[in-house]
Specification:
single chain, 205 residues, Multidrug-efflux Transporter Regulator, Chain: A, Domain 2, four-stranded antiparallel sheet, three-stranded antiparallel sheet, 54% helix, 16% strand
Length: 205
């Protein structure tokens, strides 16, 4: 058995302790790191110093290897059963990152819902404005021109058109026409014959 009462060793000390080359020491340290152990040394006076817990771990690995077992069969780190000094900083970081990602994944739907709700409200507002603009344009386009009938009467007068009763009555704002002559809006309308089955009216001023 190795004496593990030492509280610190260097790489050179490990070489002498196990009777192996520096490259083999480094390979063992790398192998333990890959299994999740913390083999990061402490810096003291420009040297890399390994703690008592790390020395005990290296001793366990040395005994495992000298018993004829490969490093691949050495037990991997158990975060719940090992001292904190054995646990890798990387593993702790990974756990913290995983927790952050879990919290982020829990928050993401809410954030997405908030964004979707905001986008929906914006779309509704834009759609409302578009509908309002269309409605106003439609109102403007279908709003009757109060002088449209007079313009049409003037054109009929200028062109000498003979208007049927069904054409003239709406322009005069009446349902039917009677008599031979009608005066309205400064025009004189005279019945002068027939347009088919209807009376024909001549427009004068």
């Amino acid at each position: 058995m190795y004496q593990t009462e030492l509280d610190s060793l260097t790489i050179k000390d490990f070489e002498a302790r196990y009777g192996i080359a520096r490259s083999n020491v480094n390979n063992r340290i790398t192998g333990l790191k890959q299994k999740g152990y913390n083999l990061e040394p402490e810096k003291r006076g420009g040297r890399n110093i390994y703690s008592a817990d790390q020395i005990a771990l290296m001793d366990r690995l040395d005994a495992h290897l000298k018993a004829g077992n490969p490093i691949t069969t050495f037990p991997a780190v158990s975060q719940d059963s090992l001292p904190s000094s054995y646990r890798t900083q990387d593993s702790s970081s990974e756990i913290a990152v995983s927790q952050d990602r879990l919290q982020l994944s829990h928050r993401t739907p809410d954030n997405r819902s908030d964004k979707m709700a905001g986008a929906a409200s914006l779309i509704d507002a834009i759609a409302g404005k578009v509908v309002e603009i269309i409605r106003l344009n439609q109102i403007e386009s279908i709003a009757p021109d109060p002088l449209a009938n007079l313009r049409m009467l003037q054109e009929a007068c200028d062109r000498g058109w003979l208007l049927s009763s069904s054409q003239l009555a709406p322009l005069l704002g009446v349902k039917s026409l009677s008599g031979r002559t009608i005066e309205r809006f400064g025009f004189t309308f005279t019945r002068v014959g027939r347009n088919g089955i209807e009376s024909a009216w001549k427009v004068d001023r």
